[in-house]
Amino acid sequence: MVKDLVRDEKILSVPCEPATAEDAQLAQDLADTLESLDEVACLAANQIGVTKQVVAFLDDSDTVRVMLNPKLLRALYPIKTEEECMTLDYPVRVTRYGKINVAYDELKDGELVSRKRDYRGNTAQAIQHVIDHCKGKLV
User: Pick from 54, 62, 107, 122: most CB atoms within 10 A?
Assistant: First the structure.
């Protein structure tokens, strides 16, 4: 179900709790909400009002992917860039990394399955952005 975006910095500044397999509907709502938005590459659950570590992003083929409990394990090739966010009215200068390795959980048949994967470029930047959201960091 498509949800409204939250712009309340009080909610967005709260570090998110770990997600569980019971957060399957939240994962679907986040994916549905991301698909409904134009020119948006990623969303975190707190951006729809739920402080859980669930993120959705568009991969290199513009397919929506969902991660639960993402953790940045390795980051290479720092880049200074300017980012915008759907829940802020202004762009912010940040340092992102061109190549990252992420550990996360994926829902498979109602269970959480641990994964690790490398990402590059714009996809890596989007994932770093939503991991920051999970930590309660506003770019």
Answer: 54
